[in-house]
Write a sequence for this structure.
């Protein structure tokens, strides 16, 4: 796996925001929380993920570098909210009411399930499939499932089974 080096200034900005949001949560919830470890090894189109049992936040270094402050403002609180939700409520729905409460009431950040960053630079090979009404982009994982007969994709518009455009 090719590693991407995140500039120190960005790493400091990540840590600063994380510490500020952690302090905010500690004050609101009247308890202290350990500082999660941060690693920059998230791959693909996922901006970040929270490893609950490890108390770790994984960040996509490419999307961080490309989106900097917007990434920090959205992704850090989002992933921290997963950890805090797990700490406070145990195993619950990933983006359920408990997580939304932590995001909006505790961390004062809009609760958005997905990011809107461009993923062009981190997207793997795509395959064009078509139906009666349009073309669809499938990932290599989806394409391989079709080849192995494990999945069949259908257009949400016309209901037609997707076929590979050769």
């Amino acid at each position: 796996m090719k590693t991407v080096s995140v500039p120190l200034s960005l790493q400091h900005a990540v840590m600063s925001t994380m510490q500020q949001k952690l302090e905010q949560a500690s004050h609101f919830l009247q308890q202290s929380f350990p500082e999660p470890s941060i690693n920059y090894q998230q791959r693909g189109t996922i901006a970040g993920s929270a490893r609950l049992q490890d108390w770790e936040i994984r960040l996509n270094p490419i999307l961080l570098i490309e989106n900097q402050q917007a990434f920090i403002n959205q992704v850090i609180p989002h992933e921290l909210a997963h950890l805090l939700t797990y700490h406070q409520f145990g195993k619950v729905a990933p983006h359920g009411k408990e997580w939304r409460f932590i995001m909006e009431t505790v961390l004062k950040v809009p609760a958005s399930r997905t990011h809107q960053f461009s993923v062009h630079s981190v997207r793997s090979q795509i395959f064009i499939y078509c139906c009666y009404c349009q073309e669809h982009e499938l990932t290599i994982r989806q394409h391989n499932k079709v080849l192995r007969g494990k999945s069949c994709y259908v257009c949400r518009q016309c209901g037609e089974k997707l076929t590979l455009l050769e």
